[in-house]
Structure formats: C-alpha cells, structure tokens
Amino acid sequence: MPVLAFAPAKFIREVRQEAARVTWPSRRETLVTTGLVLAMAAATAVFFFAVDLAAGWLVRVLFLGTN
Question: Is the whole model's pTM more than 0.90, yes or no?
Fold first, then answer.
C-alpha cells in the first residue's frame, strides 16, 4: 500500500514561513502604484482611440475620396 507523501501540517508550517519572508508594500506604495497603473491605462486608451480615429479617417479618404 502506498505511503501518504503529503503532510498537511508540514505544508501549513512551510506556507507560514514563506509568508513571513514576503516583503509587503506599504499602503502608500500600493496607492502610488495603483495610481500609476490607472494613469497608464488611461493614456493607452487615449492613444488607441486617437489611432483608431486616424485610421478611420484614412480609410474614408482612400475609399470615399472626400473628407
């Protein structure tokens, strides 16, 4: 009969040890990073919106010949 190779108590102990080694960000670091991510997402959205408008205009000019 196979031996159980998984010891739940040992696993929980090791998880707690690893979690104690983690360097958690401060509240301020989290807020600053979140703000930067949101700002970059907004800038990317504006960029792709402008590119889409320009591409749409170019297609209209090429296929319709006006405006």
Answer: no
